[in-house]
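Holo model, L3IBWBLD. Inputs:
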Amino acid sequence: MKLKLVKEIIHSVCYSNSIDSNKKQVTNQNEKEVVVLASIIEYTKASGDRLESVMSSIHGFLVPTATNQPEQKMIFRQLFDEKSCTYTYLLGCEVTKECVLIDPVLEQVQRDFELVNDLGLTLKYAVNTHMHADHITGSGYLRALSGCKTIISESSGADADIHINEGDTILFGAYTLDTFSTPGHTNGCFTYYLKNQGLAFTGDALLIRGCGRTDFQEGDSRTLYHSVHEKIFTLPDSTLLYPAHDYKGRTCTSVEEEKRLNPRLTKTEDEFVDIMNNLNLAYPKQIDVALPANKVCGVYDIPKEILEQN
Ligand SMILES: N[C@@H](CCC(=O)N[C@@H](CSS)C(=O)NCC(=O)O)C(=O)O
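Output:
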């Protein structure tokens, strides 16, 4: 057993879906404590580490469970960058104060970081849904400001502190983001799913009444069609979907709405391919600057103009 698994068990049993490692429902407080202690003992025995050092590594995970927390609400903010029409999402845990930012934009980093601080949160991860072509990610700059870790999928081909693969989980406080690979707009596109809250962050795979274009990077319309139908449309109908962009002022949709109303994805696969081949969109204005910067998204040098602006 790995320490990461012990943390995942604690997280799942105590904060999120109350399922133990054998997929058994655990709801009673005493039973939760038994499951958590068993996983700590199992790990300590197998690793040969001293119990004291194991306890100190997982202390941060245990503190909030010791107090019988009332039902807490997740902190959620949808932030907008007008220039690129990009949405950034701040998700935070009221108990542990850990938070993540999904798809931060470089020019908005000061705004986003100020909000994190105003809410008394600690930024754990700056997460990207994919390697963006229309703006530079703010994740590298946030990392420099806050010491957070940057995340992007392995298949994106971009640098970051943590590379995820489908099925990995991103934990912050009491919450778990499940990860689905949803390629087609780019190879590395991921959708992040907060199962217990019924929310998903679709990046550019699915936009409100639309979808990401497939005419550059590793775009492929058939792949995108399958990603949306087989991954996003198989989530519960009530799941609220939050995209990375909207160009018409819309903020949110649902699986049910998009299955019924999306003008591209309600069509057959061949019709979809035909629509995508005929979008005739101009290339994003910042593509030549954004792609090389985002390739090293977690670790690039912050452009001097941005540092001077702030
Ligand atoms: N005008 C914008 C770029 C608009 C654009 O191409 N958006 C992309 C997502 S960002 S790469 C897209 O997939 N659009 C799909 C659509 O149907 O609009 C700019 O110059 O930045």
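The chain has a mean pLDDT of 88. The radius of gyration is 20 Å.
Archived with the compound record.
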